[in-house]
Amino acid sequence: MPGRYRIDYLVDDRSGQPRAIACDGERLRKLYHNRLVTAPPRLLAPAFARLIDPAWLLEHWQLSAAGEALAGGRRGFQVIAEPPAWVRRDAWTRRDDRSSCRVAVVIDAELGIVLRQVSYASDRPAVRFELRGVTAARPGDAADFGLAAPAGIPVIESGGGPLQELDLSAPVRAASTALLQGATAATSWLQRRLKA
After folding, report:
1. In sequence order, what are the beta bridge partners of 125?
2. What is the spatial distance between Cα 27 and Cα 83, in angstroms, rounded to a whole number?
3. C-alpha distances out from residue 7 to 97, 150, 188, Å
4. pLDDT tens digit sequence for 74-109
5. How far apart are CA 179 and CA 176, in angstroms?
6. Shortest CA distance to 145 belongs to which of 24, 19, 10?
């Protein structure tokens, strides 16, 4: 963290989405079912960064301890976080609905990361993130942030643009790259003309 990480998605029905994402600080690699896309490095997505570093809870949230809890087979402490009054106020009824935006988290007792985060809307669970299979690395262990293409899977070099990661045929990919380069050149030319 923040520039070295690996996420393996264990859910099978992620059609069109990567099965694994790894960043070693130099290259970002996304493994799809039929290709490996490499791109310049990127920071960990905010949804995951919030689980690894729960410091966001200390910014404006009103926290209350809710005892010990188990999440993913690990012991943790449950914390209920409620937003400040200026976020909770319902503009239509002018009432303070404390339960409308609350978040319940389980923080790992050993690692200090968020094992489970459940966001509520009107007292009903709306969004849930959970880490499973979490283990602490032993001292001296080097984490593996690499990701290699399985045999027969092509490796696609990308500049990081969204079109370059799509599952496009080689001619369509070349045409989209040429179109993007042409648009960049035209924008640059237009900016120079407007400054002159």
Report:
1. 120
2. 37
3. 36, 17, 37
4. 999 999 998 876 655 554 444 444 446 789 999 999
5. 5
6. 24
Domain ranges of the chain: 47-130, 166-196
Half-sphere exposure of 177 (CA within 13 A, CB side): 15
From the list 176, 154, 145, the residue with the least C-alpha distance to 41 is 145
Domain 47-130 has CATH 2.40.40.20: no
Q: How far apart are CA 45 and CA 147, in angstroms?
A: 18
CB 69 within 8 A of CB 78: yes
CA distance 98 to 81: 10
Is the backbone of residue 65 left (phi > 0), alpha (psi -120 to 50) or beta? beta
Q: Which residues contact 96 (CB under 8 A, 6 or more apart)?
A: 85, 88, 89, 90
What tokens does 31 get? 């493994």
Tell me which residue has tokens 């969004």: 127
Please report where in the chains the tokens 């490996």 appear, as a residue: 36
What single-letter amino acid sits at 11?
V
Q: Write out pLDDT tens, residues 59-73.
A: 888 889 999 999 988
